[in-house]
Amino acid sequence: MSAEKAESDMEYSDSDGSEAGYEDYYNCQPWGDADNEVEKADQTRRDPEYAIHDCLRVEEVERLLNENVEVLSNSLHITPSLAKVLLHTHDWALQEVMTKYRDNASSLLISSRIKPSQPPDPTSASKGRKGGTCTVCMALFNPDKFATLTCGHSFCKDCWCMHFEVQITQGISTDIGCMAQNCEVLVPEDFVLQLLTKPSMRDKYQHFAFRDYVKSHPQLRFCPGPNCQIVMRSKELRAKRVQCQACRTVFCLRCGTDYHAPTDCNIIKKWLTKCADDSETSNYISAHTKDCPKCHVCIEKNGGCNHMQCYGCKAEFCWMCLNDWKAHGSEYYECSRYKDNPNIGNESVHAQAREALKKYLHYYERWENHSKSLKLEEQTLEKMKSRINQKVMDASGTWIDWQHLFEAASLLARCRYTLQYTYPYAYYMESGPRKALFEYQQAQLEAEIENLSWKIERAETTDRGDLENQMDIAEKRRQTLLKDFLESDEPSDKLLHP
After folding, report:
1. Structure pTM?
2. What is the distance between the alpha carbons of residues 441 and 78, in angstroms, rounded to a whole number?
3. C or N terminus of the chain, fewer CB within 10 Å?
4. Displacement of CA 166 from its chain's centroid (Å)
5. How far apart are alpha carbons 384 and 409 in whole angstroms?
6. What GO molecular function terms would the record report (predicted)?
7. Is 305 part of the annotated catalytic residue set?
8. CATH of 265-488, one of 3.40.630.30, 1.20.120.1750, 2.40.30.170, 3.40.50.970
9. Which is catalytic among the residues 156, 178, 305, 318?
């Protein structure tokens, strides 16, 4: 990628200030949700990062949940409201709840914060009341204006309603408890809806309750897309990639964040939290313009490729380390690898802090660089479309003749996206042979990505064979880095805590 002269006041910025998302680069691929189980199985074999799933609308999810409630209610001869509480507090494990209830109903109810059924107690109606009044507002007892929970605590309906509204305003629904002091009994859904008087509060309660039911279900996950109502259903919520049919958002099925292979869910959460910490990121001023290492003219990176060529002196160098590109093929491993200070243990506290910050910035700069490269390569793709349109108009080949360029651009995006997420993983790895091997493989992918990016930006029809060969090499390097992640998505136990 050539570099152009930058004005002294020029700064690099994304058009919308946001990170590039996986869906921005992959929607051109036929990765949409398959229509049947056979197609989904075939898609999984073709793409091991893909998770078999269904995209459900709200009414479909409600029907799924209600079917379980109905089965439990009919089998155990309990109210649907009680059945829903039992299922929710036991992660919708229908068979497990049925077995536990038949073995020891009282124990199950107590563990679910439900008061077991007992013989009628003539004094139960007075619990929560003192001297014939509501102990909250001191209103005189009136059978028509008081409501008693299964635990026997009785309060006036107005106080119950106010209690529910306060809880709902705070976003609480299925975890609303009895008002009585030291009573942990949960208030069932029918009891709440019976006493809520405002339609808006009833709607909020049902909305929050639905949210809680989905979150507690082991096979359901809300789509994180903006204002999207779709719920993903999968037999196993593994850390694999899914795409919403409605809003086209791509995310990790397990944690709901942007897809992050080969970094696992726990590590990416730690990394994003660390990156959001102003105490560290404020020390990092991203070098969006750099000086040419040969003629020292200020240049700006205007493409995704890290193989740079100075606009003035034509010197070719690496954007990250500024070394000569000709010798870079053999030294790329050193460019992507962080070198620990062997004497850091003997340094002062301040020196150790500086070293820790230096290490963080090493990985953060590369993480951020690949994110920005994805954005720039999106612009390159748009330019490519215009160029191909012009060639087709000039009768220089057909769209089919140029299709391989779009396939190459899509593969480049996949590789660079994967490479971006190798840096948080490497940052938290302990030093040793395992990390050395991972960083070697990381460097190999990085080198092949830059070669692919360089070829794509200069590709013509005569270069097709060379380009497709480079695509094959890059994808194999990417799969090598993903191998451990795809075979086991359990959280890594090889973490540092810098």
Report:
1. 0.69
2. 58
3. C
4. 31
5. 10
6. ubiquitin protein ligase activity; zinc ion binding
7. yes
8. 1.20.120.1750
9. 305
